[in-house]
Amino acid sequence: MSHHSRPPVALTIAGSDPSGGAGIQADLKTFTALGAFGTTVITALTAQSTRGVTGVHPIPVDFVHQQLETLTDDVRIDAVKIGMLASAELVRAIGEWLAKPPLNQVPIVLDPVMVATAGSSLLESDAVAALREILPLASLITPNLPEAGVLLNTPPATSLPEMHQQADALRELGTRVLLKGGHLDGPEAVDLLADEEGVREVSAPRVRTQNTHGTGCTLSSAIAALSPQRAGWFEAVRDAKAWLTEALGHADALEIGHGSGPVDHMHAMKPPAPRVD
Question: Catalytic annotation on 72?
C-alpha cells in the first residue's frame, strides 16, 4: 500500500443481521477491529436473532446495483468480502461487478453462505449453480464443510483426509479455497488453505463455546480486512484465524441472546473505565 497513513477500505456485500453477530454487522465490527475502514452494500434484510432466522427480505437487484455504483464511483475499495447472495439473479449481478474495474483489481473473499448455524437455508438451489459460475472471479472462497458439500454436490467431509480431497476438488472450480474444518471434532480446529502453493493446514485450538453465531461471516471479513495488510493469503488467513480464536474465547462474557450468541469482535479494545457517580 502506497499511503501508509490511511487504512485500507474494505467493502462487505452481504445481508443484515439485527442481532449484530453475523452479516454486515459482524463484517463492520471485524473491519474496524482489524484496521480497515468498513463500507457496506446490503443484499438482504433478515429478521433474525441468536435463535435463528425468521424471515429474509431480499433487496431488489437493481438497488444493489445502485448501491455498488454510487459507492465505487466515489470511494476507493481495497478489499471485498461477499456474504449472503440469496438468489441466482443477485449472484449473477454481483458476478458482473467482480469481473470489471474497480473490483476485479482487489482481493475478493467470497463466503458461500448457504445455511445459517441455526439450520435455516439462506440460498435457493438455482443460486448454487450461479454461485459455482462466479467462483473463479473471487480471490478466495471460505466454505465450511456443509457448504463445500453443497458446492461439490457430495456429502460433507467427515475426516481430515476427506477434507484434503474436497479442498482439491473445490480448487478445480477455479479459485483459492479455505475449507473450514470447524464441524469436525478434535482438540484443534483445522482449516485447509488450497492455493497455487498446494494445500496447507491452518489450525488453532478448538474453543469450547455455544456462542458461534456469525463465525463464518467474521472469519471471511477478517481475511478480507487483512489481505491488503499482509504479504500473502497464508499470512492473512493465519492471522485472521488467530484473531477469531481470541474472539471466540471472549464470546461467553457477552451474554447476548438466548441461542447461539455472537463472538466478541471487539475483544482487543480496552474496556471503558467504570462509571463513577
Answer: no
